[in-house]
From TrEMBL:
Pfam families: Dynamin_N. It comes from the Eukaryota. This is Dynamin-related protein 4C. InterPro entries: Dynamin (IPR022812), Dynamin_N (IPR045063), P-loop_NTPase (IPR027417). Gene3D superfamilies: P-loop containing nucleotide triphosphate hydrolases. Residues 69-94 form the Dynamin N-terminal domain.
């Protein structure tokens, strides 16, 4: 992970540029994951796994609807905009 720092008169700003690279440890190459990959595996992947487990249990036979599209993200990260673009309609905000 590379760090660059800029100093202004009152505050210091540090931005992180993440990369995925391999490091050698003896005879093995170890993959170092960028934070986005780690975040996906820890926070987002469990949602997909849960939906898949429910599908495997055939819950749709009981008229339980499962999502076809799952959009995950923080507040103001563009989730509604992505869905509006896919569906071609305006969605309520709030």
């Amino acid at each position: 992970m590379k760090k660059t720092a800029r100093t202004s008169s009152k505050k210091k700003v540090v931005s992180k540029i993440s990369t995925v690279k391999k490091k050698s440890h003896g005879n093995k190459n170890v993959l170092i994951e960028a934070p986005i990959v780690s975040s996906y595996n820890d926070q987002i992947r469990p949602f997909f796994d849960t939906v898949e487990r429910l599908r495997n249990l055939n819950v749709m036979r009981e008229d339980i609807l499962l999502p076809s599209i799952l959009v995950v993200g923080g507040q103001s990260s563009g989730k509604s905009s992505v869905l509006e673009s896919l569906a071609g309609i305006s969605l309520p905000r709030g």
